[in-house]
Amino acid sequence: MNRAVQSIVLVLAIAPAARLMADDQTSLVGVWRYAGEVDTRSDGSPAPASALSDTQGLLIYTPDGFMSIVHMPRGRHWSTETATIAELRETAANGNAYAGRYEVDPTTHTVTHITSVSMEPAFEGQRLSRTYAINGDSLRLSGTFPYQGETIHFIISWTRAKPQKQ
Predict the structure, then answer these.
(1) Closest C-alpha to 117, from 108, 109, 126
(2) CATH no. for residue 28?
């Protein structure tokens, strides 16, 4: 096979994977609102109730590969000047916030969040891999997190945020 034909075959072989990666990354780009979460133990039983509180959040993916997530308990009515230790602990235990870059692997349907900053110091500089599923304006991320010595499996649902009319 001559070099020109080899080059064409190579481009044709790579093009679908590149298009798939671009399509998945393009589909992720935007602002997503927290819609719900299901947490289970490794054996499939429900996670402890305290592992999941009533929360709200935003997840943002930019076209140039940056991401940010803020996920906080609802009903907080304190300010930094008036917060009690218990209120701060509840927020830290049931909230999450980090930002950094992200990578998409469309062949495994995995998005990896590469943290630069994090509310949880142990997560800084980490690669947090999540399996993703996109269906229109719905996004589902799944993975695991440590909780009181256990590994908790999560499925978090997000809905694409719509621009507000002004």
Answers:
(1) 126
(2) 2.40.128.360
